[in-house]
Amino acid sequence: MLDYIRKFEKIMYIALIILLGGVVIFSIAELVWILYEGLFLTSVYRLENKELLNIFGFFLLVVIGIEILDTLKAYLRENVIHVEIVILVAVIAIARKVIILDPATSDGGLMAGMGVIVVGLGIAYYLIKKGNTIITKAPDHDN
What we know:
Number of helices: 4
Low-confidence stretches: none
Helix content: over 70%
Order of helices and strands: HHHH
Shape: flat
Radius of gyration: 20 Å
Structural class: mainly alpha
Mean pLDDT: 84
Number of domains: 1
């Protein structure tokens, strides 16, 4: 029975990878269209600040999709979720939000909350990296 569940789970992960791959491809196509439209249709060879922020936000959205694909692929291969990759996806997502955030229309509470999230994710990433270096160092048994 457990084997059937594992096979079903593997099929679901493969389906998710295929669907997310399609989303990433369409996102890249839309990013290319936004860039083309901004450079050649709206204002020739010049991007406005709002267009640049939109492009950077879309670019980071594609990176988030690729990182999630990497997480699913790693889980499918090793049957383990890599927390480091999940934290990196969260860092990219919050960075995207910070980049596209308009400080003129945002309240202080939102910005303070994002600051706390950025610091928390930074600390989590540091602790994970530090933990990985401690685990990967082999003890010296020559003494």
